[in-house]
Amino acid sequence: MDPTQWDAPFPVVVAALFVIVMLRANGTFWLGRLSILGLRRFRLSRLLESPGFVRASERIDRYGAPVVTLSFLTVGFQTLANLAAGATGMKLRHYLPAVAIGGVFWALIYATVGFVGVELFGRLYSYSPSLAVSSAVLIALMIAGYVVWQFRRRVDQPTAPASPAVEPSA
């Protein structure tokens, strides 16, 4: 089912692909959200309420949006990213814009080149499986490196000290 072969105007193809990816990604997000609710009934609830898990969830919530958006430029990782976003309780105000932007990227890519990229990867894999896998790993490492770089850049930025409140003199 190659979208470049659909007998429909380009905007309709992009819109249809966008709806498909939004339904799939948001469904995966909510599966993650529901699965974490089920875990709260068991002994794992202590782990989920621990300061470490809370800190990790806050970081994923704060820096996870770029990961969700960029995951739409990968094959296979986007499902895990959406599931993790749901399981960690990423706030919808961060998740929805990230998934919408990523969904637009995904829809435009698949509407223009269709499954050509997947077919090229398949041909590369049949020619040299090690080259294909190493290329995919390299791309994933580049994305991960970018995310880590962004995270460190934000953490290392000095914050301006809060100005002390000036009390009126009596």
Q: What's the helix and strand layout?
A:
Layout: H1 10-39, H2 45-48, H3 51-71, H4 77-87, H5 92-112, H6 116-127, H7 129-156
Helix pairs in contact: 1-4, 1-5, 3-4, 3-5, 3-7, 6-7
Model description:
The protein has 170 residues and is mainly alpha-helical. 75% of the residues lie in helices and 0% in strands. The protein has seven helices and no strands. The longest helix is centred in the N-terminal third of the chain and has 30 residues. It starts with 9 loop residues before the first helix and ends in a 14-residue tail after the last helix. The model has no long low-confidence stretch (mean pLDDT 78).
Name some characteristics of this structure.
single chain, 170 residues, mainly alpha, 0% strand
Total helices: the number is 7
Largest sheet geometry: none
Output mean pLDDT: 78
Determine the fraction of residues in helical runs and give it as a percent range.
over 70%
Structural Rg:
21 Å
> What's the number of extended β-strand segments?
0
Structural class: mainly alpha
Q: Give the ordered list of helices and strands.
A: HHHHHHH
Distance between the termini: 78 Å
Query: Could you list the spans in which at least 5 consecutive residues all have pLDDT below 50?
Result: none
Q: Report strand %.
A: under 5%
Question: Judging from the principal axes of the Cα atoms, what is the shape?
Answer: globular
